[in-house]
Amino acid sequence: MRLADRVALVTGAGSGIGREIACTLAAEGAKIAAVDLRPETAEETLGLLAGDGHFACAVDVSDPDSVREMVGQVDASLGRIDVLVNNAGVDHIPGDGREQLLETGQQTIHMSDEGFTKLMAINVNGVFFCLRESLKVMQREERGGSVINMSSIAGLSPNGNVSYAASKAAVLGITRATAREQGRFGIRVNAICPGVIDTPMTAGVAEPMLKPLIRATPLGRTGTPSDIANTALFLASDESSFITGQWISPNGGLVMQ
User: Fold this and answer.
1) 8 Å CB contact between 255 and 156
2) Does 22 fall in a domain?
3) Which domain holds residue 164?
4) Dihedral class, residue 245 (left if φ above 0, else alpha if ψ from -120 to 50, else beta)
5) Cβ contacts of 132-137, under 8 Å, gap ≥ 24
6) Is 255 part of any domain?
7) What pLDDT digit, counting tens, does each position of 158-184 carry?
8) Crossing angle (nearest 10°) for helices 162-182 and 126-141
9) Is the residue at 1 inside a domain?
10) How far, CA to CA in Å, does 45 sit from each of 37, 42, 63?
């Protein structure tokens, strides 16, 4: 058991990649705090986890007070946090201009203030709020820890969707800066940049955007949630004990850097 006697907080754990990560870490012995925007989906994930002693709750990651309360609940219920998987995020918000991107090839001039601001609030502010509050618990325990921030190939090589690309590039900046800061506490901070993964989120992407990406992927297929979950397991475990401030991109060769 690579994660025995460890507590992992996974945001966006109610479906897709987040649920698969929660299940994979639990199978390796971790106690899971499964967190999602909707309490019912968090509870559904809880029922799928191997072992016992897990915890589920709902949180809006864009609300700092809600995040602060959630981390306090996790700390009170499970006693500490050893692993944070900052997975909660969205790729589309009404008013972000994605429909116009498909129609005209332009998104920026059609994006509303609210569309841009709300997506950034979830994908960037949410990562920061969960990171900030979880680090306070990790530092207190003096056990070190591992933070895994979910970015995207869009943060490495943008292909349209301006607000999403901006948010995922920001996650990489947060990852690197925090890794430098937290190394002296034994806390590692890394990012995963998935390619095209077969999830409910991807199912909502229009075919004109999705098909060219799959055709351009050298391995000729979409990835699976388990491809990302196994990467998260590696970064959460001692197998990656000398890795921090880095990104790993399971993308089938779509982006090579």
Assistant:
1) yes
2) yes
3) 7-248
4) left
5) 133/67, 133/68, 133/70, 133/71, 134/9, 134/71, 134/81, 134/84, 135/178, 135/182, 135/187, 136/71, 137/71, 137/74, 137/75, 137/80, 137/81
6) no
7) 776 888 999 999 999 999 999 999 999
8) 20
9) no
10) 13, 5, 22
CATH of the domain at 143: 3.40.50.720
> Catalytic residue positions?
164
Instruction: Name the pTM for this structure.
Output: 0.94
* Number of domains present in the structure of the chain: 1
181 within a domain of the structure (yes/no): yes
Cα–Cα dist 221/213, whole Å: 9
Strand order of the β-sheet with 7-11 is 55-58, 31-36, 7-11, 83-86, 145-150, 187-192, 247-248
The string of pLDDT tens digits covering residues 214-229 is 888 899 888 999 999 9
